[in-house]
């Protein structure tokens, strides 16, 4: 759901789930748009199949009744019918497979990135490193991101979703995400960005994102990782390139 909040005389778009939400959150990346479109196409075929099978089942129950047919039919197979119910599902699967493979390719493709962000999952917080952005001391920008406690929340912030250090990235920029963990399995997931990737100790998983609009996008760890699994949220703030440079310079000065 999109929440508008006036902060520092700016309107910020918050993308978070609303209570009892069934559908997807608003997409912010081409990958998430593709996921939603593929889901809608898939549901179309599922509805057709369910309606057709239910109709056939209802006809069988109604017409093949002992009171209507005292003597059972003697046929055991129909060649034409078997050809039809073999070819038709095959064609449906081919129609579904083509956009599915295209979407999988788009999700795995990593275009030459402008920014690389390394994500490290720990019990029970996230750490971020802008590994290709160096300060005067030749050290990358590194910070931890903890959930904000309920007593420390400001007006308009979300309980169990807000963090003290957000991941700030520019819009309309190819960004590479390298995800790992320091202890147990975690999963870095942000629904609006179409990203859900496991963080495995001793392994680097890679994905990319291209955020098309400004906003604040919320996610959570999606792999059970211990007692505080539900208390390590993710917040990605997408800003304009100028605002990103301003944030980056302030981060360098604070470090």
List the helices and strands and how they pair.
Layout: E1 2-7, E2 10-15, H1 30-63, H2 79-108, E3 115-122, E4 125-134, E5 140-145, E6 167-170, E7 175-181, E8 186-190, E9 195-199, E10 205-209, E11 215-221, E12 233-239, H3 241-254
Helix pairs in contact: 1-2
Structure description:
- The structure is a single chain.
- With about 260 residues, the protein is of the alpha+beta class.
- Helix content is about 30%, strand content about 30%.
- It is built from three helices and twelve strands; from the N terminus they run ββααββββββββββα.
- It has helices at about 30-65, 80-110, 240-255; strands at about 1-5, 10-15, 115-120, 125-135, 140-145, 165-170, 175-180, 185-190, 195-200, 205-210, 215-220, 235-240.
- The strands form two sheets. Strands 1, 2, 6, 8, 9, 11 and 12 form a seven-stranded mixed β-sheet that branches. It has a five-stranded mixed β-sheet with strand order 5-4-3-7-10, with no helix packed on it.
- α1 runs antiparallel to α2.
- Residues about 1-10 have low confidence and may be disordered.
How many structural units, i.e. domains?
A: 2
* CATH homologous superfamily title of the largest domain: Cupredoxins -  blue copper proteins
CATH class assignment of the largest domain: Mainly Beta
* Structural shape: elongated
**Euclidean distance between termini CA atoms:** 34 Å
Number of E strands: 12
């Amino acid at each position: 759901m999109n929440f508008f909040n006036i902060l520092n005389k700016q309107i910020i778009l918050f993308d978070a789930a609303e209570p009892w939400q069934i559908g997807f959150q608003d997409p912010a990346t081409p990958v998430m748009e593709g996921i939603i479109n593929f889901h809608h196409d898939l549901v179309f075929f599922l509805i057709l199949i369910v309606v057709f099978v239910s109709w056939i089942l209802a006809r069988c129950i109604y017409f093949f009744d002992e009171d209507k047919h005292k003597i059972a039919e003697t046929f055991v197979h129909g060649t034409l019918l078997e050809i039809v119910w073999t070819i038709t599902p095959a064609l449906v699967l081919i129609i579904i497979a083509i956009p599915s493979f295209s979407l999988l390719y788009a999700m795995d493709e990593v275009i030459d990135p402008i920014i690389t962000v390394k994500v490290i999952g720990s019990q029970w917080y996230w750490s971020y490193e802008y590994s290709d952005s160096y300060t005067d001391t030749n050290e990358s920008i590194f910070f931890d991101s903890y959930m904000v406690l309920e007593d420390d929340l400001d007006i308009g912030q979300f309980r169990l979703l807000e963090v003290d250090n957000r991941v700030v990235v520019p819009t309309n920029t190819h960004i590479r995400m390298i995800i790992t963990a320091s202890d147990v399995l975690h999963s870095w997931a942000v629904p609006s960005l179409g990203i859900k990737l496991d963080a495995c100790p001793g392994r680097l998983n890679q994905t990319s994102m291209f955020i098309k609009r400004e906003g604040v996008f919320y996610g959570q760890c999606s792999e059970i990782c211990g007692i505080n699994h539900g208390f390590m949220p993710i917040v990605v703030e997408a800003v304009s390139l100028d605002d990103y440079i301003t944030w980056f310079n302030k981060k360098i000065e604070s470090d």
